[in-house]
Each structure stands twice: as structure tokens, then as C-alpha cells.
Amino acid sequence: MQDTRPVPLTPPSMRRPLRLLPLALTLALHPVVAPSLGAQEKEDRTLLNWEQMRAIIMEASGERAMHHVMEFVPYQRVRQAAEYTTGPFRESRATVEMAKQYGFSSANIETFPSAALWQPSKGQLWVSEKNGPRKLHDIFDTPVALGTNTPTGDISGDLVDVGNGSRPEDYAGKDLKGKVVMGSAPLNTLQRMAVFERGAVGVLSWNSMRPIQQPDIMVSSAIVAGAMSGGNSGFGWLVTTRQARDLQVRLERGEQITVRSVVEAQTFPGRQEVIHLTIDGDGSTNQDVVVSAHIFEGLIKQGANDDNSGAALILEMGRSYIELIKAGKLPKPKRTIHFLFVQEIAGTNAWLNAHPDLKKRIIADLNYDMEGLRLTTAGATWLLMRSPDSFPSFLNDICQNFMEFVSEITRERVRYRHNGYAPALDVLSPNGSRDPFYIKIDKYYGASDHATYMQHGIPAVIFNTWPDPWYHSSQDTPDKLDPTQFKRAAVVSIGAMTVLAAADDNMALRVAADVLGRGAERMAANQRKGLSYIGDITSADQLAQAYTDAKATVRHQANIEKSVIKSVSVLFADPVAAEKRLTTTYIPLIDARAASLLAEVKATFTMAASAWKVAATEPAMSALEQEAGRTLVQRTPPAAGAAPAGPGGGGGGGRPAPTPTRIPQHMTGELNAVVGRGMSVLDIRDFISGQFEPVPLQDVWDHIKNMEKAGTVTLTAGPVRRTR
């Protein structure tokens, strides 16, 4: 792109011989255009003012977050027995010590029961070679190489390659008694198929998420503890793709390879630790806020990014906020902030169940899972995964507000280059990268603690980095992390946390206005998606269904936005009165906007009908639609002690969907979450179709009928529905 600044032209007659001027005079006549560092642009707006955001940027430290990681997990290690017998665990002790230095209001370790804890003190894997045995693994080099729950033993056996190892045909014609089996299936699958069912003494797995891209990593895994039917549980080791291929080549050449596993392991009484820090509110409200990360994902698997990075980040969020409050640069919190460092999901459940009084006070959770990865090295994006439509909340928009603000001010925008070739106010760490800040506001995905909070009725979002090429592997180590990414994540998060903790009525109104505006954008985006269904048809007989799907998409988003705007009421001093005002003020406007969007959908339908030479009449409901529209779905009460149903896309909770089903996997969690809310089968179909993409009503009908057969739902007759 060309530089568009004007270049002065001097006529030839005016030119003079070159003469050197004094430097000061030269600069005075021709000032250098310097980068305008920190130049505020009026379009850069967020819920806090520029002075507050600048203060956060100047205080938040990516280096300190990195230091936290190095205190927690400088390397993947074998824990000392004392951590199990006398405690606390290293991460817990380090967190509390630093929290006390930083001035948190309280810093405690809460202990909850768990299953017995397994820990090896020795582990070596050997394979025979022509000139002597070769040690493939030692747990003091690569702790995750040994499958969790492998018992003490010195066991040897000849190696047999079974290919994948998850199918009976992989074992056909092979005598495995007393042998060691190698396959690409997970450890526990190989253990069941080879050890429990065919008499093998141990298994080697080279199961990997990215075997071609990452041939030298091992993914943390486990075997089943104890023996089945009185038999031997065998041993389990992980090998890399490269090691597995080398062993396969040797076997194909006719070599006999003997594998030896040497393990000494102990079990300790079960214990999980939850580190609980607080920054006290001013006592003016009975509401609290939670900031969470799982510092433990099991005790053997220790990941620098997953998720010691999340724990390191939230500790830095708290430290920075305390300093900014002391300096008078941010408002003191009205609501107490709880910082929870947990065993993933299990620790969150245990803490919430142990503190029902606090659970009632919590209005929001910010959850952090994998935050510090260098984005360009990993080819990754920093994600805000919104709460699902089954749990609409203002929380999404607060977080998006700050995330997009930081993304914009750290980007050099060519339209502002008259101020200099620089971002408005970059957010960099001294020892970090200068990478672009790649972000994405994404749909909900579960499988972390935010899903657990929502199952307990608490609004929650997750910040996450994906992809992570070293996810759950032997190479999830601190060298993959970036202080600049930590700093940017901290700035975004401190801003969001400040709004949640300190919001008064004025801030609550600002949030409501922001939510309304972003909701209008989402409604327009869903309408655009719906209009594309009409544009996608390839025959006239598809038009009626496309039109129906387009209307359902607009109506779905309008209903969600009504719930989102009402959810802001919790931030006002009088939530009940605030909800009434928000409802009477904004809900009619959302309805009017939906009516306008639907009118545009109908206009497009009319034009399409003319193009396809069919009548533009409103589609009549089919017999199946009529039956589905009057069939209400109620959930059968779960058995005592069962987990509550809740948002579950991607493994995030709720009951598993019954099989067989034709519902796409990414929809089953949301379908499961809305079952039992008094909706009809047709309502449920339109809900998941509006949130994602159209799914055939017959597939939803069959799915619900399967749930009825399984005894998880009850179907009852409701009022007749005549239109869609």
C-alpha cells in the first residue's frame, strides 16, 4: 500500500546547492513524524474509561504471570511423597504464599475427599536391541509416559503390534498370552482388549491427537486400576509416534523385541485441594463474583498451559486489581471476588456443594482454561466461548466488550497512520512477543469448570486458547508460553472483573445499553443466516421449509435477546425493580426489531417465490408439525445423587444423549439442556435449529421418542399450535 502523505514539489528554478544545516534547525523545519504512542481514538470505547484502561495496561504484568507458572510447574515432575502425606501440594503452597504477599483479603486451602491417589516413585520402560537393552522412558524424564494406575511390578514380554487395537479383528490369529501389545488405540482400550480379554501382560499406546504434526509427544493417559475378575491389570506405557514406527519397522524385519516395564508405585489416601482467595467487597450488597481456573487436572498430568496458565493468570488479575485499588485508579469492589484454584470440575462441584450460602450470592463466574500460549507459534486464537442459548446472560457482552477493545488498540490501523505508524496503545511485555492479538468470540463449548457453574445455576463463560498442539502431552511446558499473551489476557479480564465487582446503577445501565446494541447485531446476524437458507434452495419445493427455518432463526434470537437484557437486572441495586424497567423499556423494542426483520424475511420469500414461479403463501403446518407442536416434553426426575442436567455441548455436562440419534453432536448438549422446560417437541427443534442450523423435525421427534423409551422424559398433550 502506498504512503498517501503529500510530497512537496520544488520547481527546478527554486533548487539550491545542498548545504548542511544545524541539526536543531533541521528538526525545526522538518519535524520527524513519531509514532503517537497511546493516542486515544474516539472509536475505541469500552465500559471503563480510557484513564482506567490505561492504568490497567500499565499495571498488568505478563512476566509476573510467567513467574507464577514457574512456581507452579517449572517442569513436569514426579511429586514427592510428602506432598501426599503431609501436604499441601506444591501449587497450593505457592499460590497461598504469593497471595499473602500481594495483599489478598484471605488465602486458604480447603480440602475435600477424593478417590485414592496413585503416584509412581520409579518407572522405566526398556526394549531389547542387538547390542543390549535401550531405555525408552524414565518417569523422571517424561512423567506422563507411564500410564496412570500402573501397579508396582517388573514385567517382561515379547512385543506384538496389533495396528489400532480397538477392534476384535486386530487381534485375529495372534497369541497374546504373556505378551506386550502395541497399538494406536487409547491405553484403557488396549488394556481391555489385550490384557483383560486375551492375557497380555502389558500395553504400549501411541495414541495421539496429531501423530503426523507432533510425532514426538505422548498424550497423558491411564489404565483401569486394579484387576478385573481377579486377573492381572498389566502395565501401560505411552510411546511416541516416532518410537512406535521404529518398533514396527523392526518387527516387520523379523526381529524379536522384548519389552520390560519396571514400576514402583504407591497409593495415598484421597484428597483434593481447592485454593480459595478473596478480595473483599464493601459490604453494600449480598452478591459475590467468582474467578476460576483449574490448577490441578489430576496430580500426575501437569500442564504449563493446561491449566497452570489459567491459574497463573487469575493470580495476576488479583494482584493487579489490588494495586490499582490502592492507587485509587479503579473503584473498590462492591461485591466480594472469590478466586478459586481447583481440581477441574470435581473441585468446583465439591466447593459449591460445601458452600451453599456463598453459591446463592454468586452472580457470575469468569473461567480461565489455557491462557498463555504464544498464538503465532501454535497457530492459535484466544477465544471467548459464550454461554449457550440455554443460559442467556449479560456476562458474554461484558467480556466481549473488553476483548474487542484490547484487540483494536493493539492493532496498527492504517486509517490512523497520520498519528504515526503504531497502534493506539499496544499491550506488550518486555520479554514477550510482538505477535498480533488473534481473538474470536465463539459459540459455547463445555468440558471445563464454567459448565459446572452453569449446572449450579450461575452464569459463566470461559476464556481459552485453541488449537494447542501440545494439549495434554509430554510437551505442555513453559517454553510454549508468551508473557505478551498473558498481559493482554490480564488486561481484558481485569476490565471485565472490575465491572462485575464494582458495578453500580450507572454502570449497570451502561451494560444494559451495550447488551441492547450487541443484541441488535446478533439478531441481524441470525437474520442474515436465515436469509441464506432461502438463497440456498435448488428447487421450488424447498422454499417453504427454507422460509420456515428463516423465521424460526429470527424468532429464536429475539427470544434470547429478551432474556439477555433482563439478566442485566442483577447488577442494579434493586434487581426486581430493574427487571421491570428493563422489560417495559426494551422488550417492546426487541419485538419491534424482530417484526421488522421478519418482514424482510417475508419480502425475500416473496421475491424467491416469484423467481421460482410458485405462490408466496404462508406454508401450512404438516401433520408432524402439528403433532410435535402439541406434544410437551417433561424430564423424568433423576435418580438420587445424579448430576443435574445443564448445558453440555462438547462434553460440558448434563445427561448423555440416548442412542441411536441423528442429532449432530454439537447440538445434543443444548437439546438436553432445554428438555423439561415445558417446551414442545417443535419448540425444541426450532430452538436448536435457530441456535445452530436447521435439523429435520423428524430427527428431533425420533430422538425425543427414544428418550421416552429410555425413561428419561415424559410426553404430554398441550394446546394445539396452528402457526409457526
Automatic annotation (TrEMBL):
Listed GO CC annotations: extracellular region; lysosome
Keyword Ubl conjugation attached: no
Gene Ontology MF term list: carboxypeptidase activity; metal ion binding; metallodipeptidase activity
Gly residues bias (residue ranges): 646-655
Pfam families registered for this protein in UniProt: Peptidase_M28
Subunit-level organization: Homodimer. The monomeric form is inactive while the homodimer is active.
Main localisation: endoplasmic reticulum
Protein name: Carboxypeptidase Q
Natural source organism: Gemmatimonas aurantiaca (strain DSM 14586 / JCM 11422 / NBRC 100505 / T-27)
UniProt-listed PANTHER family: CARBOXYPEPTIDASE Q, PROTEASE FAMILY M28 PLASMA GLUTAMATE CARBOXYPEPTIDASE-RELATED
Compartment annotation: Endoplasmic reticulum; Golgi apparatus; Lysosome; Secreted
Superkingdom of the source species: Bacteria
Domain Peptidase M28: 277-492
SUPFAM superfamilies named in the record: PA domain, Zn-dependent exopeptidases
Alphabetical UniProt keywords: Carboxypeptidase, Endoplasmic reticulum, Glycoprotein, Golgi apparatus, Hydrolase, Lysosome, Metal-binding, Metalloprotease, Protease, Secreted, Signal, Zinc, Zymogen
